[in-house]
Amino acid sequence: MPLYCSILGAKNPNILGLGRTSDNYTLSQLKALGSIHHNTHPTHIALVSKFDQSFSSPLMEEDQTKMFGLVTDPDECCKDLDVAIRAVHMACFLCHKLLDNFNSKSITNNHKSPIKVAGWSIKAIVSWILFECLGGENVSIVIDEDVQTLSNTNASELLEAVIKTVNECLAEAPRFGVEEPKSAIGTSEVLEIISRCCSVGGPSGRFWALSPLDGTMGSACGDQYAVALSLIEDGEVVLGVLGCPYYPMRKDWFSYHRSYLRIISKLTSPTSETWNEGCVIYAKRGSGKAWIQPLLHVNKKFVWPNHAKQVSISSIDNPALATFCQPIVAANSSHSFAEGLAHSVGLSNQPLRVYSMMKYAAIACGDAEVFMKFARAGYKEKIWDHAAGAIIIQEAGGMVTDARGHPLDFSKGLYLERLDRGIVACAGATLHEKIIDAVDASWVSSCL
């Protein structure tokens, strides 16, 4: 099957949509333009430097392309990041399609539950895009479940639903700058695509880590969840993309359940272009920048920079003024220790309790300042649950370490091995130091 991807070309402004609103390019066309080379490490590509700072009334695509110029810095984006961003946008589109209006109480345990269908379909979609756009020889993916679960005879209904969903989603690929397959993908092809996701990570080489539906409980009850994709090279996270389909674009909306926000959105004029919720956040190692883009509106096409805006951490370094993020699920985290620690450092604001890696997004965007997670004995943190969020916070100006202040180690395989006590993420070094000192002071008296 030929490789397809719409990549931004540094030498041809039309590729950025400056001459037309949308183009889909085949690999051979891209080679002719000199922008990429098959089976080689991708060269850097141009991005856009001027971003729409007002999200209350985004521009139409045609108007948007007229106001942006090119960046001279070649490190603003690379082919890997471009493809990963499009893959996560497609995954979020798939999530909206399946999860917006289902009744979790009646069908969560069903073999064809939208949650299960979405999880497997995202694995297939992301794997397909990475392999088709980057070349299979350079792509290795870590996921949380083996394809044997899906190919099991008991999962025939689930597999059928996944195949249907994948094909429906790939039919929309041109909206995201990726050319759709020439024919529908069948059972054996879907299983083969997912079976490629068999990396076990490690200290050397290059692999992707995918969390297709982080915060499953959130998605089951109509609340927050995330799609996370990161690239790890020789044990170091080099880029991260985090899709948050329901991320509220106003800080005061964080305290409301998603179902309430859904009612608010229905009161908005159906012709409104207001960006009320949903985003993709991304960062590349060493750039010192993190960016946020809105999810695509219905029938819109992905055009760089898709109203992107640089985000940065909060300037608050006083624990008494900070907002504390806390996991909702208590099974794999000690809420009592985290809450006691928050009290000991003077955190007085109402904690932000949300599902998924959206907590990382909240800190990177300046909507919260502290995230602490202290796992119960025997629980191991998975690399795909933290890699994308960690690099996004770090490039936005924050810090993410274990609870002793040591960097997180993504080189030990599927898990964050030798993780000391827990994970602490903060908006800035000063606040981080205060929290780490408080952990040291409180740990001896804890029962963890």
UniProtKB/TrEMBL annotation:
Assigned keywords, A-Z: Hydrolase, Magnesium, Metal-binding
Residue numbers binding Mg(2+): L213, D214, D385
Family: Belongs to the inositol monophosphatase superfamily.
Cofactor dependence: Mg(2+)
Protein name, per record: 3'(2'),5'-bisphosphate nucleotidase
One annotated GO molecular function: 3'(2'),5'-bisphosphate nucleotidase activity
InterPro entries: DPNP, Inositol_monoP_superfamily, Inositol_monophosphatase-like, Inositol_monophosphatase_CS
Name of a matching Pfam family: Inositol_P
Catalytic activity: adenosine 3',5'-bisphosphate + H2O = AMP + phosphate; 3'-phosphoadenylyl sulfate + H2O = adenosine 5'-phosphosulfate + phosphate
Superkingdom of origin: Eukaryota
PROSITE patterns in UniProt: IMP_2
EC code: 3.1.3.7
